[in-house]
Amino acid sequence: MAGAAADGESYLLLRRGGGLWGVAHAAVRGLSRQGSGYRVEVGQRPLLADEVVGVVTGLRVRPAMAALRRFWPEAACGLAVHETGPLVIVDPASPPRALTAELEPSADEGDGHG
Amino acid sequence: MIEPDERSSGASHLLVRVGGYVCALPLAAVRRVVRALTLHPLPGSAAELKGLAEYGGEPLPVLDLARLVRAPQGANPAYPVTVVVWAGPPEARELVGLAADAALELARLPASAQWQQWQQADTRPRGGGTALLPESGSPLAGFVAGEAVVGGEVVRVVNLEALGGLG
Fold first, then answer.
1. What is the DSSP string of A32-49?
2. B58 to chain A, minimum CA–CA distance in Å?
3. Partner-chain residue, chosen from B44, B53, B88, that has the shortest CB–CB distance to A72
4. In chain A, what residues touch B41 (CB-CB under 8 Å)?
5. ipTM
6. What pLDDT, in 10s, does the model give residues A4-48?
């Protein structure tokens, strides 16, 4: 999945959990408020964001380094820098848990409730 | 900021202090030593990954060298410097940052035959402390190649080639 992005591709930038994330704008199907944050409709499951930074073009997307993948076991389309902030380009088909965590039912949810 | 140059002639390693340890980084792999880069956390990462930084306009993963070598925490765990190094095998090397307490000096290490090579059975490094050798298969296996004595002090010799590839 990793590889250089085509010039001119647009990305929606989000903040979540203190990190900066990008998702291909073409994959975004909707954006709405959810609580104090935002809900971004992409792929099969929505993403949660604390802040929507905006849409940017011209990011130079690099593959995620092996050293990074050793210590961060999530799928990603690559890494980039926006202004001076490094960011992860999210794979809409397999977003990091940090962007979906509040949507995941906890282990004990759904049992024992009538 | 420290950059290896002609003054390093004859030296083979950069000694850095991290927590209670002194580590030796192969000089050929050291790109630069800079003041601690601004870190952006990556939720869900292992503790060894402190976050992402921007370096030269590119994203740079910054690793916690103290955790990588299992160093006991020092008095000032602020890690005020970042050592930018090449990691991984030569055919697939990549830049990473190592958070450390200080860059100390350039040094020539004795030949590797004189090191105390770390074996899987070793659990007590010669320099004391409580560090344990990572188990085989651990992401950290092979990262510390051994120990050497430099100026009367035990230093952990870091194998940066073991850091990059996923094996």
1. EEETTEEEEEETTS-EEE
2. 6
3. B44
4. 17-19
5. 0.82
6. 444 579 999 999 999 999 999 999 999 999 999 999 999 888 999
